[in-house]
Amino acid sequence: MEVERARDDVVVAASAGATTIGIALLSGVAGLVRVETLPTLAPLAVYAVYLFSRKGGPYGSLDEPRNWAAAAVLAGAVVVAASAAL
Questions:
Q1: Fewer CB atoms near the end CB (10 Å): N or C, the chain?
Q2: How many domains is the chain built from?
Q3: pTM above 0.90?
Q4: What is the pLDDT of residues 7-46, one digit of tens each?
Q5: The domain containing residue 35 runs over which residues?
């Protein structure tokens, strides 16, 4: 595995993991919103899609680790917003 590719994977995995932990803390410890277990894992689903989409090339200009990390955070924000609205 190339070092650059490993760094990219860590960036996306860290953002997905941190967002998942943040949702769990908001739901469980802080009690600000009530989020069920499956929606809490939505950022990790974005990471799984990222991993399975990296099987070959060529990749588009929008297919950057930064964009995948932002998508994971956005998925977490959508879960929290939807849970707060319900």
A1: N
A2: 1
A3: no
A4: 989 999 999 999 999 999 988 886 778 888 888 999 999 9
A5: 3-85
